[in-house]
Amino acid sequence: MISTFANPHRFMKFTQWMGPALLGLGIVILVWGLYQGLVLAPADYRQGDAARIMFVHVPAAMMCMGVYAFMVLASLSSLIWKHALADIAAKSAAPVGAVFTLICLITGSLWGKPIWNTWWEWDARLTSVLVLFFIYLGYMAIWSALETPQKAGRAAAILCLVGAVNIPIIKWSVDWWSTLHQQASITLTKISLPADYIVPLFTMLAAYGVLFGALVIMNMRAEIFSRRAEMLVQRQYASMD
Amino acid sequence: MANPVVTLFFRELRLAWSGGGGAALPVGFYAGAATLTPLALGPAPDLLRAAGPGILFITLALASLLPMERLFQADLEDGTLDALGASGANYTGMALAKTSAHWLASGLPLSLIAPVLWVMLQGPGAAVGVVLACALSGSLAFFFIGAIGAALAAGVRRGGLLIALTALPLYAPATIFGASALYAVSEGRDFGQALNLCMACAMAAVALGPFAAGAALKTALD
Lengths: 241, 222
Fold this sequence. Notes:
The complex is a heterodimer of chains A (about 240) and B (about 220).
Chain A: H1 8-14, H2 18-40, H3 54-81, H4 86-116, H5 124-145, H6 149-181, H7 195-240
Helix pairs in contact in A: 2-7, 3-4, 3-6, 3-7, 4-5, 4-6, 4-7, 5-6
Chain B: H1 4-17, H2 25-41, H3 45-65, H4 68-77, H5 80-86, H6 91-120, H7 128-152, H8 160-167, H9 172-186, H10 192-221
């Protein structure tokens, strides 16, 4: 399947309706998941309604790591097999991943205010997600800074892999750091989630996943169109000489 | 004929020391930034002792970023790297030679004045050895991680900010462990663990960084 789509033409034909279709499906699942999570699920006995933000927050946290993993796979197949669309896939996924990371950070902060009584705590998890956000920003900056898409694609793929090596190290170091400082870490006590919570949580995760697919496909199509347009313009200049 | 990578290493060192290379500028920046600290925080010894180790390490990280913009850019623009590539030098070797030469020219002096600044920020004088070890391993990690960003941004005009944006998140581990070791020694706790981990960051950066920087240089030269 992956080698089938190495042909951009075939990819464009196949995905013509896929982007909007997935987008519609994603929005339907999202609305259903939000309704389940925000209305149907019972309020938490300790946190009250504030716990409902979890249905937006936890799937976003899963996605921000998952999207980076997707970008690493795409960057690897771009560097190793020179897959024609892998660069474009990684580039298209980056802003979506950055937004998931931002959603995760913002909703976490909104939840932290009533529960932890602080907008921000330099807790290991929060810190490593924030660093991940900066890695996303750096990745997107490389894409916008280098001139030709070929060079930018290779440089961005290298940075993506360097980031992949570093993310576990950053995670450990940040864990270590709060241990070394022996801060009063406020963590949510482990509660095994009841089905009332599990179902909306995974519905939301499914919605995010489908929306991610839709947005990546639409971004990729836009990128392919703009490269074709660029090529046409250059051909026109060449014929004018 | 000598190995082109070795030749490049000594050429870089000579250029850095012969003046005009600006090798000493980061040291001036480091000393200046550390001098501003008491002016901003006030001269109270207790406060300086509490904030000093962290400030010393952050300014070290920032000072290490300064030479990065010119690390590969000048040689890329005038074609030196192209000529070296044509003469059979491999890109990993070039990245290793240039980064280690620049570390010797700028990173080593940075590490050497760190203990002086430490004492000026009211750190305990007996700890200068540990401070030196922290600064040496920290600056090694900063230089070799920064070199990846420098190679990625080599073809970009005014790529300095791009280097900072790509390299700073990757500075997190070395900063955490280096500053932890400094705080531990300043408060008389056991610093061994944190210092070892900071050195591990430096070794990982020196071992792996040139491969990534070399691959990025190859991209920039095509």
